[in-house]
Amino acid sequence: MAELKDKIQNALDEGRMLVLGSQVLLGFQFRSVFEHGFDKLPHSSQYLKLCGLALLLLVIGLLIAPGAHHRIAEDGEDTERQHRFTTVVMDWALLPFALAIGIDLYVAFKMTLGQTAGIMAGLAGTLFALFFWYGLELMRKSGHRHESREAWEMGSAEKSAGEGGGSKVKDKIKHVLTEARVVLPGAQALLGFQFITMFTEAFEKLPVASKYVHLASLSLVGVTIVLLMTPAAYHRIVEEGEETEHFHRFASRVLIAAMIPLALGICGDFFIVMRKVIVSSTYSLVAAAVMLLFFYSLWFGLTIYRRKQLWLKVKTYEARSDS
User: What's the chain's average pLDDT?
Assistant: First the structure.
């Protein structure tokens, strides 16, 4: 079982991971009101954008609250009350975030594809976020008994101890949360840029195909952000802040999965920029494909190759030891 100070530190790190990205998106929300395209929105869409801004302010207020509570109410002490407060606040903070994402998707898709597409995109975005931030966790928590998980964890811990090596689970969890924290702010900054680009005069002049690619890229980056924020929700709801090998494996898989749509989203907008500058669709498509190949080769190809090399070395060493 994790020590209280480690659980509180993990909770604060997860809160920091969420608040950094939220503040980036909040800045773009403020900026969008002063863009050329905002005045052309119907009043209903303008009011919805205002609601989205208010929801993000609510998110920021909730995510910053644990720091104030820790300083004022607990005088910096690590207490169970501080851990409970942080957990509850973070659980609730993701709800308005999901609604804000849905609102922005609705407005973005409505501008290009019409109201029906906007409603479908907004609902899909909100439901997707709610599933990964609440539904998945609640299903896992209700369908998986603590006793069986603890028994599995004890067996896994004994096996690791018998093998005599490897990083501690708490260190691996800190690493995977740090790695998610490295990726998340940049992805959220990209999403904010994608939203605000749609309000610029230059976006209106883009070919229709480029607008569709932009919407697809925006959606892919949105998926990335939802996935990157999922480990924080899962750790709070399912594991209740405990440091388990199960959570480490889950967070690792989600982090890796998030990098797949991220690369596609980046390269989609790279295609748009290339097409705007050099005009040629063919050359732009080739450049985007090369960039995508670079990302996937570096993030997955090289890493899988090195993992196989390590596996072969271990097998060779074991074979020599047996002989």
Answer: 86
Q: How many other CB atoms are found less than 10 A from the CB of residue 2?
A: 18
Q: What is the CB neighbour count within 10 angstroms for residue 306? A: 10
Rg from Cα positions in the chain: 22
Domain limits, the chain: 4-279, 293-323
pTM, full prediction? 0.86
Residue 147 has pLDDT above 50, yes or no: no
Task: Report whether 206 contacts 279 (CB < 8 A).
Answer: no
- Cα separation, 132 vs 144, in Å, equals 17
Residue 261, CA distances (Å) to 28, 124, 218, 258 in order: 22, 16, 10, 6
pLDDT tens-digit readout, 248-287: 899 999 999 999 999 999 999 999 999 999 989 999 999 9
Q: Is the pLDDT confidence value at 163 over 50?
A: no
Q: Provide the angle, in degrees to the nearest 10, between the axes of the packed helices 208-237 and 245-278.
A: 170
DSSP 8-state class, residue 159: H
With H, G, I as helix, E, B as strand and everything else as coil, classify residue 280: coil
- Residue keyed to tokens 């539904």: 135
CA–CA separation, 143 and 141 (whole Å): 6
8 Å CB contact between 291 and 270: yes
